[in-house]
Write a structure and sequence with these properties.
Layout: H1 6-15, H2 25-28, H3 38-51, H4 60-72, H5 80-105, H6 120-133, H7 137-140, H8 147-157, H9 162-187, H10 191-195, H11 197-230
Helix pairs in contact: 1-11, 3-4, 3-5, 4-9, 4-11, 5-8, 5-9, 6-8
């Protein structure tokens, strides 16, 4: 198992600096000490990201894709079907937990002073997503960072039927857990991918921060538009 070249490390870490190295899939999944515990690590990260409000910053998409890619290249000795099944189960359990938190706590779960961990715009974004797409949002939100953390709680607060939520949650968990993992595994089958894995890792990091960049631009435009109207 080879380490990232110095040139790649210098490029990756400034971009993925949003996360410490121990949270960066491109770093810790390649650690030999993690391999025996890969399934437990992946499941724990996915559960925290999707089930607990404080886990919105975890890189679920990158984690699944990178894990699948490393399995394909032989860097991680885990069965891909088992990995996909475990990821889906953890994602399902996480959303169920978030839903129950919203159902039990009600609107009060969001009636807290704005903070870095529970920002009102994160909650508003999830609420808008839920209002726009209804039941489908439970599936679609799986592929939208931050929204996938807050939407289950929003569904619980909105009193979405429990059986309905379970059905759409199961569908979304399978599509996300297996889909993203198998995408990484499938691409890893190509020799070019395997021989340029460091470059692929850089692309993964860049793709991971695109939603953040879009959100920043959207906020800047909104502020500019608001300032123009006031003047």
């Amino acid at each position: 198992m080879t380490a990232l070249p110095v040139s790649a490390m210098l490029f990756v870490h400034p971009v993925s600096g949003l996360l410490p190295p121990w949270l960066d899939p491109n770093v810790f999944l390649r650690d030999p000490a993690v391999a025996p515990w890969l399934l437990a690590v992946v499941c724990a990260f996915l559960f925290i990201e999707t089930g607990l409000l404080v886990g919105f910053f975890l890189p679920g998409d990158s984690l699944l894709f990178t894990a699948g890619l490393l399995v394909a290249t032989g860097s991680v000795p885990v069965n891909i079907v088992l990995l996909g099944a475990a990821a889906s189960a953890a994602a399902f359990a996480g959303d169920q937990t978030g839903y129950l938190i919203g159902r039990k706590a009600g609107p009060s779960v969001f009636n807290k002073p704005d903070s870095k961990l529970l920002r009102s715009d994160y909650v508003d974004r999830a609420h808008e997503f839920f209002t726009k797409y209804g039941r489908r949002s439970v599936v679609l939100a799986r592929f939208v960072p931050i929204v996938r953390t807050f939407l289950p709680v929003t569904a619980g607060v909105g009193n979405m039927g429990h059986r309905t939520f379970i059905a759409f949650n199961a569908m979304g968990a399978l599509l996300w857990g297996f889909g993203v993992t198998l995408l990484g595994f499938g691409l890893g089958q190509y020799d070019w991918i395997g021989s340029n894995i460091d470059l692929i890792f850089i692309v993964i990091v860049l793709i991971s921060v695109i939603p953040i960049g879009i959100e920043v631009l959207r906020k800047r435009r909104a502020k500019t538009s608001g300032s123009s109207k006031e003047s």
